[in-house]
Each structure stands twice: as C-alpha cells, then as structure tokens.
Amino acid sequence: MENHKVVVVPCSGIGKSLGTVGRVATYKVIERMQPEKTRTVCLALLTMGDDDALKLVRENPCIAVDGCPAQCSKKNIEASKGKLAHNIVVTDVLRKNRALKPDGVIELNDQGDKLAEIIAGMVSEKVDEILRKEKWE
Q: How far is CA 78 from the centre of its chain?
C-alpha cells in the first residue's frame, strides 16, 4: 500500500451552498495545499460500502468536512469503522466569520470562496498535526 495519507471527506450537501463550501475547501487542500499528504473519497461510495472507499478510510486517518450540523461525513466515517481524526463543520466556522455570506451551488461567490479558503487552511494545519502525531510523515 502507498504511504499513509490523510483522507479528507467532504459532505455531499448537494444543492446547498455550505456543502459546496466544504467540497471547495477539500479540493483546495488535496489539489493545491497538501497534494502529497492527502486524498479524498466520494461520500456516496463510502455510504454504499464500496470496498476501495472502506479500505481507504479504515487504513488512513480521516478529516470530515461537514456543511451542516447533521455531520453526515463524520457519521459515515464512523459507521464504516474509519479512523476519524478530526471533524470540521462549516456552520461552526461561519458563526465565527459572520461577515461572510456564502452563496452559490455550482460556483461560490467571493465570500463563499473566502470561507472555503479559511476552512482549507484549518484542514491543512490539521493534516500536518495528524501526520506528526501518527508519525507517518
């Protein structure tokens, strides 16, 4: 198996701007900020019990990025016996950044992108912390 990576699992949140914020934040991390240290998996595959998705979350530490308090990503990682290392809920971050008003589903407005950037920074910091702690870096 390849070196351990942190698996960032965004919620589906289809049709919801906060779900989009979480997905955009995830892609900022896995494509730009931490491409060598992270991966992602489709939540639907995990929910359906896809063997590759299950193996990925069971063998690597995971960060759930949930759009709302329902925390579907977190719950599905746990239900899949995955290694949940951290959870970020977009609504919690939004409460601390009330000036931002994210909007858009297919494409976020500037404020939504700014919120996604804040969350991506939080995820990126947590990736380094997890890998140091797990001594997998």
A: 14
Q: What distance in Å separates the CA atoms of residue 30 and residue 53, rounded to the nearest whole number?
A: 16
8-state DSSP, 97: -
| DSSP E strand boundaries for 1-137 | 6-10, 38-40, 61-66, 83-89
Q: Per-residue pLDDT for the chain (137 aa), expressed as one digit of tens each?
A: 346 799 999 998 888 999 999 999 999 999 999 999 999 999 999 999 999 999 999 999 999 999 999 999 999 999 999 999 999 999 999 999 999 999 988 889 999 999 999 999 999 999 999 999 876 44
Q: Is 37 helix (H, G, I), strand (E, B) or coil?
A: coil
Helical (H) or strand (E) element with 13: none
Instruction: Please give the Cα distance from 106 to 39 (Å, whole number).
Output: 22
On whether the pTM is more than 0.85, the answer is yes
Rounded Cα gap, residues 111 and 74, in angstroms: 25
56 CB contacts (<8 Å, ≥6 apart)?
A: 7, 39, 41
